[in-house]
Amino acid sequence: MKKLLIVELCVIVAIALGFWIGRITSPFNNYTKYYQNADKAWGKVLEINTPTVTHDDPDTNRLRQVRAACRAVFENYPDSRWADDALHLLGSLPRTDEEGFALLRRLIREYPDSEFADDSMYAIATATYEIAEELKKTGTLESISAYYDRALALFNQLIATYPGSILEADAQYNAAMCYYGRGDINIALSELENLKIESGNNPIIYKILFQIGSIYLEQHDYENARIEFTNVVDSGDPVHSPVASFSIAQAYFAEGKYAEAAREYQKVIDIYPDTEYGKDANFYIGWAYANLEDYDNAISLLEAAVDDYPDNKNTTTTKFYIAQLAEANKDPGLAISTYQEFADDASHNYDNRLSAQYHVGRLFEQSGDITQAVDAYEKLLKDYPEPHQNPAHQSRKITENYIRDLRVDNIDEE
């Protein structure tokens, strides 16, 4: 019995001794070297993270190592100077948005005075705003203001909690855009006007001026819209000046002042030729001349735009429009050849190609060239067996019977 007690006592002592030795030798519990170990742990993060990884980095093994090293820092050394750095870095390398938000919220909660706290709050707010914008586009927003309200609350929290933050003006701008996104246009405009006064020389002023102009344009207040856009252009800001210059032309176009619009589009082409807006202006100037019924000039400009910018988003629509303009210009030859070229291009939408092929036959029929009209209509039935999606589209009347009657009528006339 005594031997058994002695054995048990020895076991207990051994366990206690082992636990104590483990405690004092563990690198995580050796508080005399706590901060030195923290420095080493963060140094390991920097070593692994050189060159810098991204959340979609193809080197998934190194990405996992960086994530693990970051977590080792803030979990084992939460009171070190590197804990918030590690949290922020890991928050920028999440597997999912939810994980990223959770890490950034933890940083804000546990290290509210961190240099990354305002940035983390801004990141969450901006992501929430972007979710609202995307859901609004797709029409799947559960509530028209749900995500905008959440983003607005976060932007306002940042403004209140971190006054003087480098992100304060951006947060104020985005708060106004939350009002705009949920449909409170007048509140948004008022907030932007106030921010315009407060911003002074802050570079965000050009974004503010442009957005104010855009709201005026939506409200059909064309004169005030052009004033704001002109202020941006006059600033020479390289980011916003091209779109502001283009928007001046758009304001004239929307107002029905097509000559002024054409003049302003030409300015965009001359001053910003290599920008997206400079390229788009090559198309819009042609549309402006078309509205002035200067069809020759419009067609010439649009044909040049199509040739110069074949990949522009306006090219497909413009090709069809050129045919329509040729028809309006009493040039059936150009209209027919343009429609046929469009119909033969398999890269275009089925319904649009079908429509173009129909117009080829229609124009031949209207000109009295029944033989070619029949050929065009037969090609329509052969190449486009499925009818146009629009039940009222004129192409739906073209049937074998219609073609047969056309032939018969032509024979009778001969």
Task: Provide an overview of this structure.
The protein contains 20 helices and no strands. It is an all-alpha fold and 414 residues long.
Please report the total strand number as a whole number.
0
- Strand residue percentage: under 5%
Terminus-to-terminus distance: 131 Å
The main pleated sheet reads as:
none
As a whole number of angstroms, the C-alpha radius of gyration is 34 Å
Poorly predicted runs of 5 or more residues: 19-24
Shape descriptor:
elongated
How would you classify the quaternary structure?
single chain
Number of helices: 20
Helix content: over 70%
Which structural class should the secondary elements be placed in?
mainly alpha
Give the helices and strands as they follow along the chain: HHHHHHHHHHHHHHHHHHHH
Overall pLDDT? 91
Please summarize what this structure is.
With 414 residues, the protein is mainly alpha-helical.
Which tags fit this structure?
single chain; 20 helices; elongated; Serine Threonine Protein Phosphatase 5, Tetratricopeptide repeat; mainly alpha; 414 residues
